[in-house]
Amino acid sequence: MRLRSKLSKSFDELPEIILSSPPDTQNKHWKHLRNVFLASCRFRFQEAETVTDISKLIRAVEKIPTDKAYRARRCSEQIFSPMGRALEEHRREQLFFQVIEKGDPNDIRILEELIETDPKKYLRKANDPNSILNNKNREGCTPVYVACRNGSLEYVDYFMKKGADLKIKCSLENESCIEAAARWGYGQIVKLLMKQKWSPEEIKRAKKLTKSKQIYNMLEKSHHKRHCSWWGCS
Length: 234
Fold this sequence. Notes:
Elements: H1 14-19, H2 23-44, H3 54-62, H4 68-79, H5 82-102, H6 108-116, H7 143-150, H8 153-162, H9 177-183, H10 187-193, H11 200-209, H12 213-231
Helix pairs in contact: 5-6, 5-7, 7-8, 7-9, 9-10, 9-11, 11-12
């Protein structure tokens, strides 16, 4: 029986209500009742004191459990709690993709700092699908895919040097990085991506998606070279 459900009864009946509660909840009810009495007594009297020494007032305020040491301890507990770690990782991922979407080459240093301060960088390799370099956003796109789609040449080059996995497809579009770059007509990015090995199927899809004759010829030339290296050409 909850104490709160019996508040409509008279004040004199409260002890009987508490005693009729299960033994494991009686202590909790008595504590609540004690707090009510204590608060009501303190609100009846206005206690004021004239302070002449400001330092004394500061020392008194610092003893309240909202001082810097208390806030620092609470902050530390929140950060290292499971919920705190999850929120911190979510904020890190959000900032990571915000920087990429913006596409400012000067902000690559922010990505570098996020990668270096990633608490899981020693647990996951660069080509790990769950690493910060390959982790997908809510649209199902990897960082390097977003850079290819947006035409951010400097970011694509940066991710390639970092060892990001270029073959992970975007879940939303079901296409790889080279397909996205070809579809949106970013010739320089396609040329950069061609330094990596791509399957004939991926090259074929990229050729089908592009509307640029220059990119098409680039992909065709690469496909022809690879075909000759496999089968030999006269």
